[in-house]
Design a protein that fits this description.
The protein has helices at 51-65, 100-108, 210-233; strands at residues 13-18, 23-28, 41-46, 72-76, 91-92, 95-96, 113-119, 121-123, 126-128, 131-133, 137-152, 159-176, 181-191, 194-195. It has 235 residues and is of the alpha+beta class. The chain has one domain.
Length: 235
């Protein structure tokens, strides 16, 4: 979706909201035959510290500061659990439908536009060398685990079984707060992959330390939202 901004509009002030950081999903591939039903095993890791929403807000603020006109920005941290579920309900007929109290607060603070980060649900296609692999669907932030697929390192030619793929499936929306119109959107399906090849661990989940898992997700959020803001604000 893309709508050109009016050349006559005045300076913009961006409100920035991120609603992706309440939890991480751990999706483990389960083999199945003769059915299109997603049988993957799913676990949830609750994130109560808001880390990834703060990362997203900081990233977008930096991306806005990198714009030639250096627009003003206001960062909002929202913690209501209801805002992190069924996020497709926020969009209807090309308009954003947020709770009225939030919409009014954004406008009262002088914001003219909103950059909103929400979770995006799509097929689990994780990025490998020259291909995408996976099954079922994923949403938001998390990790996709495959314990059975045979992998080949194209550089070393070493074979291994299984992989771990941190992923960030997000939607970045640019909204005119005056009309609630969604001007532009960018759907992000980003992932990285690590296999058991050249690793001491034989379990894909153990190929990254807890700190490395968080860092991989941080990198995806930072990199993809930086590119996303530049894309949405391009002439």
């Amino acid at each position: 979706m893309a709508t050109a901004a009016s050349a006559a509009e005045g300076p913009r002030t961006y409100a920035v909201i991120s609603l992706i950081g309440d939890k991480m999903s751990v999706v483990t591939y389960q083999m199945s035959t003769g059915s299109n039903i997603d049988r993957n095993r799913r676990e949830t890791i609750d994130m109560t510290d808001g880390l990834f929403d703060r990362i997203a807000l900081s990233t977008i603020e930096k991306a806005l500061n990198a714009q030639p006109d250096k627009p003003r920005s206001q960062l909002f941290e929202l913690a209501s659990p209801s805002l992190f579920t069924r996020q497709d309900r926020f969009f209807s007929d090309g308009k954003l439908v947020l709770p009225e109290a939030i919409h009014s607060a954004l406008k009262a603070d002088g914001a003219t536009h909103l950059l909103l980060v929400t979770k995006f649900r799509a097929e689990a296609r994780m990025q490998a060398d020259g291909a995408k692999v996976g099954s079922g669907v994923v949403e938001g932030l998390g990790f996709y685990i495959d314990n059975v697929t045979e992998m080949l390192n194209v550089k070393t030619r070493r074979q291994s079984t299984g992989f771990l793929a941190p992923f960030a499936f997000m939607r970045l929306s640019l909204v005119d707060l005056g009309s609630s119109a969604v001007l532009r959107q960018k759907s992000i399906e980003a992932s990285t992959m690590t296999s058991t090849a050249n690793k001491e661990a034989y379990n894909p989940w153990d190929t990254l330390s807890p700190a490395d898992k968080i860092e991989r997700l941080r990198y995806l959020v930072d990199t993809e939202l930086t590119k996303g803001v530049a894309s949405l604000l391009a002439p």
